[in-house]
Design a protein that fits this description.
By secondary structure, the chain is an alpha/beta fold. The protein folds into two domains: about 10-70, Orthogonal Bundle (DNA polymerase, domain 1), CATH 1.10.150; about 75-370, TIM Barrel (Alpha-Beta Barrel). The protein has helices spanning about 20-30, 35-45, 60-70, 130, 140-155, 175-185, 205-215, 230-235, 240, 245-260, 280-285, 315-325, 355-370; strands spanning about 15, 70, 75-80, 90-95, 100-105, 110-115, 120, 135-140, 165, 200-205, 220-225, 265-270, 295-300, 330. The strands form three sheets. A ten-stranded mixed beta sheet has the order 3-4-5-6-9-10-11-12-13-14. The protein has a two-stranded parallel sheet with strand order 1-2. A hairpin with a 4-residue loop joins strand 5 and strand 6. Bound molecules: S-adenosyl-L-homocysteine.
């Protein structure tokens, strides 16, 4: 056969990959008006329609074009685990065979969905089990918003998701464009319509991306701090070596000025004997002195191969009191979904590691063993 006659069918365009700003030029390129973007968003996200034939305010020829060239494709839910406290964890399979995890956390007055942004994580925070999985790739916008789309569909209209936190697997700000587009969809009145106070991006401190974010997307920000001085933070959150605390605090101060909450939430995992002394608490007070802050102390959640222990209850309370007495609003996070490994830092999915981290870890374990 003449190879020129074999033409591969081009891949279908996943319409979940675009926010409104992305859909408008797509439709204009087809000779349509930009408002087709809002019509399509409403069909997909508000009416839950996936069959193009049912999108009756689009012309027949446009529907035909969409049918032939486009798709509305989400990851596939392959497992569901329900914890005794009502927390629900879904494993979702992507088209390339990796698995990511999404967690639904119902509370009295709100319901939060914790969403993954990458398959695995390229950062090597020493106390986080996602980090042990290594890294495969960034999730597409469709795979990120698809987690919310699927979860809400399963939960139904009586159990509306009111808050989203980008605190699942991965470092959201290292997948900047796709995460921003997905967060735009979360906040778009024609899609999920969540307020910007209810969409939170959590970062380990990717300073240049934090600075850029303020210009393009107005969401609440949480920073995984975990240590009040560089020497310790270099060990716990190694990206600190690249973007040390003075740079991080500058970025926080700037973001707080324009961000919707006018403060930054700092996450601080409580590690017994590592970062939980009164001296650490005082150093933290000093560090946050001129940054509008709230602090969220997270009890460390253990996982296999972790060498850390959670701080003692009394130590956590004393740590909180020191911050509190210095005028910093401080909460101790209630651990949720522990019995199904759905708590912070316990999301692992199934990652075809491309960073070869697991090999390095195995080698290190072997060496230790030999020694
Ligand atoms: N990479 C982003 C998003 C992950 S958010 C970030 O670092 O912010 C997940 C939160 O849980 C982070 O604050 C992370 O530091 C914290 N965490 C990770 N492992 C944990 C563990 N074993 N116990 C408690 N919290 C953990």
């Amino acid at each position: 056969m003449n190879s020129a006659t074999v033409s591969a069918k081009p891949a279908l365009i996943n319409l979940l990959d675009f926010d409104r700003k992305g859909l408008q030029p797509f439709f204009v390129g087809l000779g349509e008006k930009p408002f087709r973007a809002t019509q399509l968003l409403k069909w997909i996200y508000q009416e839950g329609v996936t069959d193009f034939d049912e999108m009756t305010n689009l012309s027949k020829s446009l529907r035909q074009y969409l049918k032939e060239n486009c798709t509305i494709s989400t990851p596939e839910i392959v497992a569901e685990q329900l914890a005794t406290d009502g927390t629900c964890k879904w494993a979702m399979q992507t088209h390339c065979g990796n698995r990511i995890e999404t967690v639904y956390i119902p509370e009295e007055k709100r319901a939060t969905l914790c969403i993954s942004s990458q398959v695995g994580c390229a950062l090597a925070c020493s106390f986080c089990s996602t980090a042990q999985q290594g890294f495969n790739r960034n999730l597409s916008t469709g795979e990120i918003i698809g987690q919310l789309y699927l979860a809400q569909k399963l939960l139904g209209p009586d159990r509306r998701i009111t808050n989203v936190v980008m605190m699942g697997m991965g470092e959201p700000l290292l997948n900047f464009d796709n995460v921003v587009a997905a967060m735009n969809l979360m906040m778009d009145d024609f899609a999920f319509g969540l307020s910007k106070r209810r969409v939170t991006v959590s970062t380990s401190g990717v300073v240049p991306a934090m600075n850029r974010l303020g210009d393009v997307c107005d969401v609440s920000m949480a920073v995984s701090l975990h240590a009040p001085y560089n020497e310790l933070r270099d060990q716990l959150v190694p990206i600190n070596i690249k973007y040390p605390l003075d740079q991080l605090m500058d970025a926080c101060r700037e973001y707080a000025k324009t961000g919707p909450r006018k403060h930054i939430t700092f996450e601080y995992v409580m590690l017994d004997g590592i970062n939980d002394s009164q001296d650490d608490a005082r150093k933290l007070v000093k560090l946050l002195k001129d940054v509008p802050s709230k602090v969220n102390l997270i009890p460390f959640n253990p996982f296999p191969q972790s060498n850390y222990r959670c701080s003692k209850k009394a130590t956590m309370l004393a740590f909180r009191d020191t911050l509190h007495n210095a005028g910093i609003i401080t909460t101790i996070r209630k651990t949720r979904g522990e019995d199904i490994d759905a708590a912070c830092g316990q999301l692992v999915g199934q990652v075809k590691d491309k960073s070869r981290r697991h090999l390095k870890l195995q080698a290190a374990a072997g060496n230790n063993h030999a020694a």
